[in-house]
Design goal:
Blueprint (H helix, E strand, L loop, with lengths): L3 H7 L54 E3 L10 H11 L12 E10 L10 H4 L4 E10 L14 E9 L2 E8 L12 H8 L15 H9 L4 H7 L14 E2 L4 E4 L5 E10 L8 H10 L3 H11 L5 E10 L5 E2 L2 E2 L15 E10 L5 H5 L12 E2 L4 H17 L66 E3 L10 H9 L2 H16 L4 H12 L3 H11 L32 E5 L7 H10 L5 E6 L4 E4 L2 E4 L2 E2 L10 E4 L7 H4 L2 H11 L3 E5 L3 H6 L9 E4 L5 H10 L4 H9 L1
Helix pairs in contact: 2-10, 4-5, 5-13, 6-11, 12-14, 12-20, 13-14
Length: about 700
Amino acid sequence: MTDQTDSHRDAPDPGAAPPPRTAPPDPRSPTGVPEPSTQPDARRQSGERLTTAQGLRVDDTDHSLTAGPRGPVLLEDHHLREKITHFDHERIPERVVHARGAGAHGTFRAYGNAASVTRAAFLAETDRETDVFVRFSTVLGSRGSADTVRDVRGFATKFYTDEGVFDLVGNNFPVFFIQDAVKFPDIIHAGKPHPDREIPQAQSAHDTFWDFISSHTESTHMAMWAMSDRAIPRSYRTMEGFGVHTFRLEAADGTTSLVKFHWKPVLGVHSQVWEEAQITQGADADFHRRDLADAIDAGAFPQWELALQVMPDSPDETFEGIDLLDPTKIVPEEICPVQRVGIMTLHANPTNYFAETEQVAFHVDHLVPGIHVTNDPLMQGRLFSYLDTQLTRLGGPNFAQLPVNRPHAPVNDMLRDGMHQTAVHDGVVAYKPNALDGDLPAASPRDGFVTVATPVDGTKARHHPVSFTDHFSQARLFWLSMSPVEQAHIAQAYTFELGKCASVQVRQNMLASLARVDDELASRVAAGLGLPVPAGDVPAVGEPSPALSQVPRSPARVDGRVVGVLVADDGDLGVVGTLRSALAEHRVVVRVVAAHGGEVGSGGVRETVDRTILATRSVEYDAVVVADGTAGSPLAADGRTPVLLQEAYRHGKAIAVVGDGTELLHAAGVAAESPGVHVLPDDNGLDVALLHDLGMHRSWERLMALAQA
């Protein structure tokens, strides 16, 4: 009988390290030591040549197979299809990109002035109203990441038109990193966490991202946008949107135009500053989705105007020397003004996040009569990728039957069966022509979608148009169009991000690219990194584009902005009521901040506390007011109070102090004479000062002084 003690002693320790793996004796070897194998290890990919999954060597992984230099992408491009298909199926069921999102329902109302360029009824008919669902998102992070990371933001709109669904699947930047969809898996893999450690999450400040950007200089322009304040928006409500690509619109008379889509926020364009964005990530990871939902609940319905840049449909598909098929290029608004053709209002939050925001399925190829795609090679790849993605994420081909995806137009698709089939099809045939069902449903050769006939002629090859080789002129245009404070933020962002790269070579390569954008930019970043300034040929560009700057020329609307009022029990609470009355018509939210919860005040004047100083941070407020009577109070003695004021000051936010509230200002080390800081004996004129400062978003003069300090 086996001794139990010995048995336990001989049993392996589950916490011990496993023994080293040794190969079994090789009977073919005279020494018993295995001979080196000539067969590849199936568990590893160690070949020196790039191949397909089947081992076929690849000649080019940067360009899709097209019919001619400017022709459409061909379906026979096996490498493109395999690469994109594998990428689309990498995650189940979370989206590979745009995983973290927020959505809302709304209505789009057309102005009617687009009838001259498109026969799409939802744009062409005056006051035509169309239901919409919009999903905003970050790109790189997982569903569990934070809202305010530095990243591109998705801005996807589903129009439920009477002629079918039209999806405008865009971003808050008008350009993209790459020119050809075959490189889309590469840029996303470069931006995602490193595969060995799965870090960093939702960040571009790491080696693989900047190695890709510096190695693919077509990304230089987009990287400038990503390092600007545009990449850290204040809210979805103050964020521009773009269709990115050039579309072809067809009018009722058959004429065509090349068009770019823009969303212009009614509240103006506004961003956080970098420290503010970082604090927000820790204080409230759901900051943007909460802001969107709260604004809708409060009746401060977010609005954007849809605008078009309309250009001639010329044979070379260029405008003023700009290649309209290159998704890394913009057309400055100064040479092609935007024409506003309708307004979108978001007025309802989703009833169920999963059923609507998570299951909504967008596709660039969801078009309606009057709107067509072009041969932009990035756009062409998206025509395949989006549909393929939905098949995996939503379990089969019937995702259009989910309520959030269901068209608001009559449907008879003659499709059958498949997973999650909920439609009950009539008839016995699923083909045309037929005699058994009266040859129904009928085709629509006149009022249906008919692809615009465009000539295609060229050699089948992996082309790279000469016009796509200009990688720096528009990056320089963007830099020159920024205000001094925005330029300072861009230089700081590059310095921060490249400072997170372990590879000195990657930093040097990126500095070489920046030297071809602007000498001063390269010098600032090089100084911050402690590296020499490389030489570079800076391209000549035209006049700057003021439309690219976020600094407003005049105050914008302030719907949904938040003012925090710091008060004490024995202090003057009248300022709270004064502000609420004065700012109510502007839909500004006033929150009471005190040392404790419950109520503050004495006698007949009492106010409910919205936030305690323990449970709040400066990022919750667009402006901060310190009421009279706070000096010597528990609020003044709390160390978190000066921190809140210091942060608001550094972030350029409006600060107002009334009466002895100046003592809190001095204790925080905030200079009373600074721009955007208002010291008042009472609350007279306080609302006017706050409305102006809120409308300008920040004190840009103060931010510039801080950047130069």
